[in-house]
């Protein structure tokens, strides 16, 4: 099979159905639960300072990012960047069990994602440019390699002064331990969460992040020090995913989407410190994951093929939250477990949430991911004050409106809801209660019907994969994860809570909206509402009081 056929076959084979779920271990082997913390044993480590004062802007202001004054790049602001993206947000404890929650959401809290930093001299940590691995447990950096100033100049040529690079990788085994063959999907979803977390953290500092979309996986592996797979336990490989450029200020002129190949070679050929720790003693091999990971390996690509994001349309001032800072909202984000079946969401705030997931130029975090927009929201609205319950659709790209109308059920009415802003492409498809349907298509999970709304993220599927290649299967999940991260934070700002749902009946969701074939596929489900807190759990601070 060619790579494209492998990717599409994997998606088909890993669907959940009414009477058959995707293959998984069938139980949790707690003795071999993967270590959620990667370390490179022998690499020198450095603690990052945690700022006591909250200097972040009000949460609502991050969506007007060009109004935020940039802070200088320093050890303190690099610390804040990771503190608001990949760090531990809190510890939870129940009896003898204790586990960490992080700023970036993860399916099952398994965290397959690892973070990296490539930067010039960083006082007081190093007087040389270096590649670091981020350590969330310690909130620190492990230095993997250093390289010359000349190599750094070549690597950063064409970027504004002060630019640094932040990388992300995945350990698929962490997800496969619990979810089996569907784990590749969830790992890619988490990659989208982490990419959005990078973008939003950068914005709080007045910075701007851009995905270097022309880099190949081989380029990223060599830059991040993942080009020696023999150093890793075989089924614990760390796969390179993406690298972003973080610019300390507004981006006035276009920046490169690629890095100097000779500079990458110099870094890759340097001395790398530390060996990766073993995460589990034994493993279960999932050949489907190995196959799709190989098929979806990204080559070097041409950024111009992706097109451009449209400029942000004017939209009325949204209903503002409670004035909480961005840092507060980001670090208090939690995944809901149960909803109270009664808390409503105002129509104005709902419209604000929908507006903030539209992919326009200059709108964080979608300007980081870049074009095209392939994901649309098929929604079940339950408790939005002033909005009729029913099925809705948010069409995130006007180019897809006609295609979606043609692909969905012919009886859908496609009505603009009351008082909806002209620039918000939201449509009522079918009025009426839909709680039972929402639960049914989301693996019978009550949480899909007990909140204010739930939704499925519907992605244009076969056409972009055939156009861009099998690797775009990953990019579809990233886009869905980016949307999910925005919705997580928007729920917190609205005084409710949200959660992503990886378990849903793919084709039954398609049938609910009349979708057939491979033109569109459901990529991720999501829900939000009034949470019921679990009082059995004890919350503990993320880092010691001395930090």
Keyphrases for this structure?
NADH Oxidase, 28% helix, 16 helices, 547 residues
Q: Which CATH class of the largest domain applies here?
A: Alpha Beta
Radius of gyration equals 22 Å
At the fourth CATH level, what is the homologous superfamily of the largest domain?
A: NADH Oxidase
Mean pLDDT: 95
SS class = alpha+beta
Q: Quickly give the CATH architecture of the largest domain.
A: 3-Layer(aba) Sandwich
Number of strands: 20
Strand order of the largest sheet: 2-7-6-5-8-10-9
User: What profile does the largest beta sheet have?
Assistant: 7 strands, antiparallel
| Total count of helical runs of at least 4 residues | 16
**Residues in helices, as a percent range:** 25-40%
CATH topology of the largest domain: NADH Oxidase
Strand content: 15-25%
Describe the structure.
With 547 residues, this protein is of the alpha+beta class. The protein has two domains: 34-93 and 112-280, 3-Layer(aba) Sandwich (NADH Oxidase), CATH 3.40.109; 338-529, NADH Oxidase, CATH 3.40.109.10. Helices cover 28% and strands 20% of the residues. It is built from 16 helices and 20 strands. The strands form five sheets. Strands 2-7-6-5-8-10-9 form a seven-stranded antiparallel beta sheet. The chain has a six-stranded antiparallel beta sheet with strand order 16-15-13-17-19-18, with helices on both faces. The chain has a three-stranded antiparallel beta sheet with strand order 4-3-20, with no helix packed on it. Strand 3 and strand 4 (97-102) form a beta hairpin. The chain is globular, with a radius of gyration of 22 Å.
């Amino acid at each position: 099979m060619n790579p494209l056929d492998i990717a599409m076959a994997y998606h088909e084979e890993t669907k959940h159905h009414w009477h058959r779920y995707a293959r998984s271990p069938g139980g949790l082997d707690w003795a071999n639960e993967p270590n959620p913390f990667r370390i490179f044993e022998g690499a020198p480590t450095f603690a990052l300072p945690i700022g006591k004062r909250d200097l972040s802007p009000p949460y609502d202001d991050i969506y007007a990012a060009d109004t935020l004054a940039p802070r200088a790049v320093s050890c303190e602001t690099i610390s804040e960047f990771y503190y608001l993206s990949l760090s531990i947000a809190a510890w939870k404890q129940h009896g003898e069990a204790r586990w960490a929650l992080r700023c970036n959401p993860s399916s099952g809290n398994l965290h397959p994602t690892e973070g990296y930093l490539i930067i010039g001299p960083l006082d007081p940590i190093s007087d040389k440019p270096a590649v670091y691995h981020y350590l969330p447990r310690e909130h620190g950096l492990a230095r993997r390699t250093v390289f010359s100033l000349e190599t750094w100049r070549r690597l950063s040529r064409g970027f504004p002064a002060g630019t640094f690079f932040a990388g992300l990788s995945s350990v698929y085994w962490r997800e496969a331990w619990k979810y089996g063959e569907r784990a590749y999907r969830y790992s890619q979803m988490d990659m989208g969460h982490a990419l959005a977390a990078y973008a939003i953290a950068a914005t709080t500092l007045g910075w701007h992040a851009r995905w270097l979309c022309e880099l190949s996986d081989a380029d990223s592996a060599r830059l991040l020090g993942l080009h020696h797979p023999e150093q890793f336990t075989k089924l614990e490989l760390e796969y390179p995913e993406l690298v972003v450029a973080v610019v300390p200020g507004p981006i006035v002129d276009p920046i490169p989407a690629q890095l100097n190949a000779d500079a990458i070679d110099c870094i890759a050929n340097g001395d790398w410190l530390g060996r990766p720790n073993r995460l589990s003693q034994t493993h279960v091999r999932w050949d489907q994951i190995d196959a799709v990971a190989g098929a979806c390996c990204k080559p070097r690509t041409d950024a111009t093929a992706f097109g451009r994001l449209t400029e942000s349309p004017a939209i009325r001032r949204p209903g503002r939250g409670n004035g909480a800072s961005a840092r507060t909202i980001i670090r208090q984000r939690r995944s809901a477990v149960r909803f109270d079946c009664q808390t409503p969401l105002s129509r104005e705030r709902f419209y604000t949430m929908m507006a903030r997931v539209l992919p326009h130029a200059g709108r964080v975090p979608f300007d980081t991911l870049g074009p095209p927009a392939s994901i649309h929201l098929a929604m079940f609205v339950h408790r939005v004050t002033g909005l009729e319950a029913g099925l809705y659709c948010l069409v995130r790209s006007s180019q897809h409106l006609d295609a979606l109308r043609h692909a969905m059920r012919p009886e859908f009415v496609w009505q603009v809801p009351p008082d909806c802003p002209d620039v918000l492409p939201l449509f009522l498809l079918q009025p009426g209660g839909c709680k039972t349907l929402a639960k049914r298509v989301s693996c019978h999970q009550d949480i899909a019907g007990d909140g204010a709304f739930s939704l499925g993220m519907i992605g244009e599927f076969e056409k972009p994969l055939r156009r861009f290649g099998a690797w775009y299967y990953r990019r579809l999940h990233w886009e869905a994860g980016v949307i999910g991260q925005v919705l997580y934070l928007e729920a917190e700002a609205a005084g409710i809570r949200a959660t992503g749902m990886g378990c849903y009946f793919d084709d039954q969701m398609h049938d609910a909206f009349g979708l057939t074939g491979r033109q569109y596929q459901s990529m991720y489900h999501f829900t939000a509402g009034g949470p019921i807190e679990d009082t059995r759990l004890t919350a503990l601070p993320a880092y010691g009081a001395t930090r």
